Each structure stands twice: as C-alpha cells, then as structure tokens.
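Intended use. Records like the one below are meant for learning the mapping from a protein sequence to its folded structure. Do not use them to infer anything beyond what is encoded.
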Amino acid sequence: MTSLSLRAVPLTDREELASLVEANLPALEPGLSLLDRRFPAGEVPVDLLALDPRRRLVLCLIGSGSNPAMLLQALEAYGWCRENGPMLGRLFPDARIDTALPARIYLLAPRFTDRVRRTARSLGPLSPVLVESRCLEVNGARGVCFEPVEGKIVASDPAEEPEDAARARVQQLVSHLERLSFREAFR
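Structure written out for the chain above:
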C-alpha cells in the first residue's frame, strides 16, 4: 500500500501562484493554451493571457480576493482587449485569435470575500469567473486545486451571449472610468 501525504500550503506570493496556475492551465479549463505571461493590457498587467479551443482570448488575473479593485482591473483589461483586437491579432499571428468573440475573464485567488463575489455577480454578462485556487502539496510536490465560486467555466455559445448588451455595458463602464480619471487629474 502506498502512503499519500497531502497538505494545504498557504500561498501569499502572487508569482508563485501564477506559476502554479500556468503549469496547470488545462486543469482550470480543458484546452486552454498560454499566449503570454504578465501581458500589459493597457495599464493592467494580465497575469496569464490564454486562448481557448475556440480561439477566444481568456484573461487570467491573480490577486488576494479581498480587494474589489481586482474587478475594476479585469474590466479595464477586458475593455482594452476589445478596443485593440486587431493589434492582438498582429502580436500573436500564430494564435489565430478570433477577435470577433469577446474575451473571457478569470479571477483567481486563494479566497474571495463576500463583497467581491456580490460585486462580480452584479456585473451581469461581464462578470468574471471567480476561481479559488488552493496550493496543495502531495508527497512533496506542489500543485493547485481550482474551485469555481461564481460564474461559468464552460465557454458559452457566442449566439447565446447578449453581445450588444455586453458591448453597451462595457462602453458605459469605460466612459465612467474615463470621467473618474479625468476628475482625479484635477484634484
């Protein structure tokens, strides 16, 4: 009989969690392939930029899960990717990114607060998938366990997505962010 040693390992280092997620990307969602790490989507560094089997961009942002600013960063990165789809196609020509499909967003953290969960749910069709990511050590080797807590992991059919509603909501949010940014410049 083989002995199995299993223990949870608390992770506070974001880079270590990003490395574990990268190494186990297909466990997060089958068929995901990494395009880039720490990709600068405007002013937001996307920890892992991936592509799903349908050639759709997947943005993975890693954080503590206790700060709702994580959601704002995800929306900023999403908006930037929507506005710069053709450029992304030129940056990754071998990937054959389908820029007609909107990017999908994963937020990964060891735990998410109720505040972050509630705020994410209120985003409707733009809501990212919240995935609690726990580091486990099995017989001395580290791995990661993914537990979705909000949102859908399975890519939906683009025909089912309310594309116009989602686009209008993103434009509204980006406009609001621009106004806030403008106001902050004059404080």
